[in-house]
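Lab manual, section 2.4: Encoding a predicted structure.

Procedure: take the sequence of the chain (460 residues), apply the prediction step described in section 2.3, and record the output as structure tokens. A sample record is shown.
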Amino acid sequence: MTRVYLSLRDRPAASRPAPGASSGAGRRPARPAKVSSVVVTLGVVSMLTDISSESVAAILPLYVTTALGLSTLAYGVLDGLMQGATALVRVLGGWAADRGDHPKWVATTGYGLSALSRAGLLAAGGFAGVTAAVAVDRVGKGIRTAPRDAMIAAASDPRTLGRSFGVHRALDTVGAALGPLLAFVVLWAIPDGYSTVFVVSFGAAVLGLATLVLLVPDLRPRRAAWLARHRSRGERALPKCKGCTCDVTGLQPAGRPFRWSLVVAPRMRRVLLAAGVLALLTVGDGFVYLSLQARDGFAAQWFPLLYVGTNVAYMSLAVPVGRLADRWGRARVFVWGHLALVAAYVCAGLAWASTATTVAALLLLGAFYAATDGVLAAVVGRIASADVRGAAIGTAQTVQAVARMVASAAFGVLWYTAGRGPAILVVAALLAAALPVCWVLVRSLDAAPASEDATAGADA
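Recorded output:
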């Protein structure tokens, strides 16, 4: 189990480096650390929260277009809101986590807002109420995501960062598969049981919030990075925190002053540009599922199972793809993982109905998320300074969220004017053309020396 030590006195004596000892010859290479218990616990929190959120997301396209009687254009606006309402608050959440050096409590605020939004869905009586509840949920998601990912990065061995994010995303996706499955069972038993789904969703959100508050430790990433920098310089007597009177085991924030220039350093700008371009050509999954339903004509109660299929594929592939990213290159896996999305769009845009193409579309969507979701956070977590890691991850996710908001709203219009098949195939062609350009932008990020992983964020 990976442990994070906040001072030398917390570290077991047997594991402390001897004075003047070198890290060089005669030693066997250290074995990669196991995935931290912090990562696993955060995965359980995400699993419970995703049971809550995905049970709602799985019925939302039908709820809006069937129960509320609105068009796909209205759903496009709502889906764009789901993608974009998290945008600015992602940066705020990351900044607050870095500034106060207490990412756990910033994440707790986000998880709490999402739990409240589930209660709001029960009270909502129309499109405006549903839109407000969805907006609150997405704001909560935006606040919590960057601090949570910063905690994962802080608790993990830098050499196996992709695997740690893969384990977290695998647990997260267990919930993302169980949520739609629960929605399917409810709608199977109660054809109009949308309110029952909302009740189940609220209960799961409360359990996830309680797990975070009671079981996840209050990690201090900036303090740990500050101590690591002084240890790497061979200082046996560590200095006091700059700007305060506490000793190194005190509770005051430590680390260098927060600077946005570190967040948008040259290497980060390339990641942000590539992520933004690719997200502009990524439409919401709900559109893919609505396309499959419109083409294949299966009954509405089977609709949530489409989410289950995608999430089972994601869950199965998250850890293997995370390991592949650690070995083959995280930026490479992130960019070329979008090929799976191109293929999924082609399967959904074909004119003829086929069980094989429907199943293939779901599996390809799962592969796309396994190759991009946690991998983007791992790319940023490696190249960003530890002092601004939360804000850097939040900034990358904000760029992605804003671009996907624009993409969903624009695709709703494109579907409405051009039709289902042509709209999806046009997006597939544009995405395929963008991949080589984005690869040119980020390919050098995988060519950094291996030693950089061991000191990621120490001296940006």
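Check your result against the sample. The chain has one domain: 33-230+259-454.
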